[in-house]
Amino acid sequence: MNNSFHPTAIISEKAQIDKSSYIGPFCVIGPNVKIGKNCKLISNITIEGNTTIGKNCQFFPFSVIGMVPQDLKFKGEKSSLIIGDGNTFREHSTVHLGTEGGGGVTRIGNNNLVMTGTHIAHDCKIGNNIVLSHHVALAGHVQIDDNAILSAMVGVVQFRRIGSYSMIGGLCAVDTDILPFTIASGTRGSRAFISGINIVGMKRNGFTKEEINSASEVVKKFFNDTGTLKNKIEKFKKNQVNIVNEIIKKFLIIETKNGICHPISTLKIKN
């Protein structure tokens, strides 16, 4: 037994775990699990399924990773969970395997913080540098792009997309796609609505004042346009090329049946 593996841990002989990683008391590791360098499983963590974990990840007590999905269509088909580098999973967080209907893979990128009680369902695609605050609930097939922040107790409906550098306020339900660079808010479980531009988030990520102003103007113009979503996207493609426009354009050109989250009144968007 590796000295960095606690004697009370139950580890399959078939599991592939780098010798630099630490497996704490009462952890359970299944036969198809791969764990990279310098990971730390503090105690009482279960990792099962066809799960691959990169390096420098940390798992806090009672995290359950790689279990079969809670999808009634799942019939035991081969599926997997891929987790990148530098991720932190706090207490009681759960992540499920993919399903055939979602390409068979749940994927989590690098340097994400998954706080206490958060659930990431089957076939979700989580980017990099994302914060999922405590008790966030992601339904199946949700996509979250880089540098987004979801506040406490946000619920996201299946197949919805959350754009880069966006922020969602706590205690709201997301049932439409969230445009990059925006702030979505709600109260006491109400539907999210766009309430502004994520200026603080953009500043923290190194955007210039000009780029922040550009994001504000682009978003306002988009929501004030009374045309169809298709027409808005066609107009948007003609915008001057810059990093802000390219990020929003990349988000918009993916066809969506979910709709785009709007302000209660487009005139109330603040920057």
* Physical arrangement of strands within the biggest beta sheet: 3-6-9-12-15-18-21-24-26-27
What's the name of the CATH homologous superfamily of the largest domain? Hexapeptide repeat proteins
Name of the level-1 CATH class of the largest domain: Mainly Beta
* Structural category: alpha/beta
> How many domains?
2
| DSSP summary: helix tally | 4
Sheet having the most strands: 10 strands, mixed
CATH topology of the largest domain: UDP N-Acetylglucosamine Acyltransferase, domain 1
Which percent band covers the strand fraction? 25-35%
CATH architecture of the largest domain: 3 Solenoid
Contiguous low-pLDDT stretches (5 residues minimum) are none
Q: Could you write a compact summary of the structure shown?
A:
This protein is α/β, with parallel strands linked by helices and 271 residues long. It has helices spanning 199-204, 209-224, 229-236, 243-252, and strands at 10-11, 16-17, 22-23, 28-29, 34-35, 40-41, 46-47, 50-53, 58-59, 64-67, 80-83, 88-89, 94-96, 105-108, 113-114, 119-120, 125-126, 131-132, 137-138, 143-144, 149-150, 155-156, 161-162, 167-168, 173-174, 182-185, 193-197.
